[in-house]
Design brief:
By secondary structure, the chain is an alpha/beta fold. It has helices spanning 17-30, 47-58, 95-102, 104-107, 123-126, 143-147, 162-176; strands at 4-8, 11-14, 36-40, 72-75, 82-86, 113-117, 130-137, 154-161. Helix 1 crosses helix 2.
Length: 179
């Protein structure tokens, strides 16, 4: 399986990095100014691949990599700017101050769309309107596949919070049929 497949309401299955980027592209076509998307999942689950797809759909400038050491990288250009945050290193009790120092409060929920990796502990701080996406590996690749660098499948679960987040989740489900 080398595809992206909707397996239920708000549930998708990705068989490869390319399929995860494709999901990001689908999401990117739907994002608007001020949208906030929280990306959750273990290391290597595909959060940055999804972000690369969003950036491509938006026509954002610059290479998208995980901004773990910068906390925030903004990609101008395209339809709207993309603000990519990675909060892996932050502690939820002191993170709000660090987010402010990194400039997050100047961009999240404002101009452009914000993708926030490892953002669940900060969800309430990031606003009442958001899309939450979790990515998880669902099976290990067989031994022969590991030798060939085949990626295990991933499940992508989408949950909308607030009116805008719920609208984005519905739009993703509806858009998939025409993609």
């Amino acid at each position: 399986m080398t595809a992206l497949e909707r397996v239920g309401e708000g549930r998708w299955r990705s068989s490869s990095e390319a399929a995860t980027r494709r999901f990001g592209e689908l999401l990117g076509t739907l994002l608007e100014e001020g949208d906030v998307v929280i990306l959750e999942g273990e290391l290597g689950a595909g959060k940055t691949q999804l972000a690369k797809g969003v950036a491509r759909a938006l026509g954002a400038e610059g290479e998208v990599t995980s901004p773990t050491f910068n906390l925030l990288v903004s990609h101008p250009g395209g339809r709207i700017p993309l603000h990519h945050l990675d909060l892996y290193r932050l502690d939820a009790t002191s993170g709000a101050e660090e987010l402010g120092e990194a400039g997050a409060w100047d961009v999240v929920g404002e101009d452009g769309a914000s993708l926030v990796e490892w953002g669940a502990p900060f969800a309430e701080l990031l606003g009442p309107e958001r899309l939450e996406i979790s990515l998880a590996r669902v099976d290990a690749a067989p031994r022969e596949a590991k030798d060939l660098d085949v990626e295990p499948a991933r499940e992508i679960n989408v949950r909308g919070v607030g009116a805008r987040g719920e609208a984005l989740a519905r739009a993703l489900d509806e858009a998939e049929a025409s993609w």
